[in-house]
Amino acid sequence: MFVYSIMKFRVEIRYKEGVEDPEAVTILKNFNILGYKGIRDVRTSKVYYIDADDRDEVSEITSKILANPVIHTYTIEAIEGSSH
Amino acid sequence: MFVYSIMKFRVEIRYKEGVEDPEAVTILKNFNILGYKGIRDVRTSKVYYIDADDRDEVSEITSKILANPVIHTYTIEAIEGSSH
């Protein structure tokens, strides 16, 4: 019996240390203007939940398409398998 | 001695079940066009790492500014404290 399984991955893409995060800078400024003085720092990241046949394609699309190797770092986590 | 502590929070904002994720739809279509046939589904979310004096302001900025209650759900997690 052939079990066809789809894996679930969680890809998180963040700005490298030292690279300015424009959205975070803007948000932090606005929070202070709006009176939220207790917000000290903000950093953002993007997460993609991807269902795929195998990890190799997820790694390739992450390094080639989703992440910009010059400014981003990323992690790829298998979160839990599910079969059809 | 007064210890002034800043807390670290992780806010994740996702589309509600049944609400279309435009970015994810576009990405998935492009992956298939580019030949990545093993990618079955994509969903996106936005993560904010926030350093703040307390949780209340983080909850308020999340529900009032960062998330749109009509289309988003969100989670707020204290990740680890640090003091100055």
TrEMBL record, chains A, B:
GO cellular component term of the entry, any: cytoplasm
Any matching Pfam family: PurS
Location within or outside the cell: Cytoplasm
Substrates-to-products reaction catalysed: N(2)-formyl-N(1)-(5-phospho-beta-D-ribosyl)glycinamide + L-glutamine + ATP + H2O = 2-formamido-N(1)-(5-O-phospho-beta-D-ribosyl)acetamidine + L-glutamate + ADP + phosphate + H(+)
Biological process per Gene Ontology, one example term: 'de novo' IMP biosynthetic process
Pathway annotation from the record: Purine metabolism; IMP biosynthesis via de novo pathway; 5-amino-1-(5-phospho-D-ribosyl)imidazole from N(2)-formyl-N(1)-(5-phospho-D-ribosyl)glycinamide: step 1/2
Keyword Ligase in annotation: yes
GO molecular function: ATP binding; phosphoribosylformylglycinamidine synthase activity
Enzyme class, first EC level, given as a word: ligase
Superkingdom to which the source organism belongs: Archaea
Keywords: ATP-binding, Cytoplasm, Ligase, Nucleotide-binding, Purine biosynthesis
Main location, first listed in the record: cytoplasm
Record has ATP-binding as a keyword: yes
EC number of this enzyme: 6.3.5.3
Family: Belongs to the PurS family.
Subunit text: Part of the FGAM synthase complex composed of 1 PurL, 1 PurQ and 2 PurS subunits.
Function of the molecule: Part of the phosphoribosylformylglycinamidine synthase complex involved in the purines biosynthetic pathway. Catalyzes the ATP-dependent conversion of formylglycinamide ribonucleotide (FGAR) and glutamine to yield formylglycinamidine ribonucleotide (FGAM) and glutamate. The FGAM synthase complex is composed of three subunits. PurQ produces an ammonia molecule by converting glutamine to glutamate. PurL transfers the ammonia molecule to FGAR to form FGAM in an ATP-dependent manner.
Record-given protein name: Phosphoribosylformylglycinamidine synthase subunit PurS
Species annotation: Thermoplasma acidophilum (strain ATCC 25905 / DSM 1728 / JCM 9062 / NBRC 15155 / AMRC-C165)
